Amino acid sequence: xxxxxxxxxxxxxxxxxxxxxxxxxxxxxxxxxxxxxxxxxxxxxxxxxxxxxxxxxxxxxxxxxxxxxxxxxxxxxxxxxxxxxxxxxxxxxxxxxxxxxxxxxxxxxxxxxxxxxxxxxxxxxxxxxxxxxxxxxxxxxxxxxxxxxxxxxxxxxxxxxxxxxxxxxxxxxxxxxxxxxxxxxxxxxxxxxxxxxxxxxxxxxxxxxxxxxxxxxxxxxxxxxxxxxxxxxxxxxxxxxxxxxxxxxxxxxxxxxxxxxxxxxxxxxxxxxxxxxxxxxxxxxxxxxxxxxxxxxxxx
Length: 300
Known about the structure:
The chain is an alpha+beta fold. Helices cover 29% and strands 32% of the residues.
């Protein structure tokens, strides 16, 4: 007799109904081992308010689709948390697609109680028709300054001799980030950052790298990168006023390229032209992700 083919079933589960161990095993052993989808990270950035679509193959979690949500004026809606650039389907894509469960199929199964869905989802588990695409820039593993453009190399030359030192003071890194970019992003100190800081505290220290850039014993920049399998996510980084003058972000990105030579460096995308142009200095590959915006789903 041949091996029995199990029927796959997808259920919506609230966070309190999810088996934490089974969830993380599904993500970490799947096609994309991204920290964004770890149970602990979601608990932090979503303030423990999230659910998920879970694809079961028998009793095993074969695929998961996290759904962060909020409730306002009695209406439930799904949103993209801060410091969590992309979500979507996680698990064994081959098994899921053999059962015709790709990203589009999961989206159709989001419960109707969520009247609005605003999500950024990766493109690695199937295409989405008529959904806006956004660019995502990724530096290939093993890139050195020789692979960057002339302007990046010039800036790095002027940054020689700086020190990059790991730090456990996550709140200080976030203070530097807020001073540099908080107002521009319409963030509120400290409410916007508490969930992210809690998410990092819940993770294993091996899942992120936080460090300061130092010149003459003074911190002139700081960053936090998430470590996901063969990919490093640039989730948070900023200069001080002095660091901005000398282009310290060039040094921060290059330092991570040098430290993690076997990893891709995911710079994340940006719809801001000046930021996108800055990332292009590092000659990254361009991927894409989908930006889903569904409103008034009850009547669709």
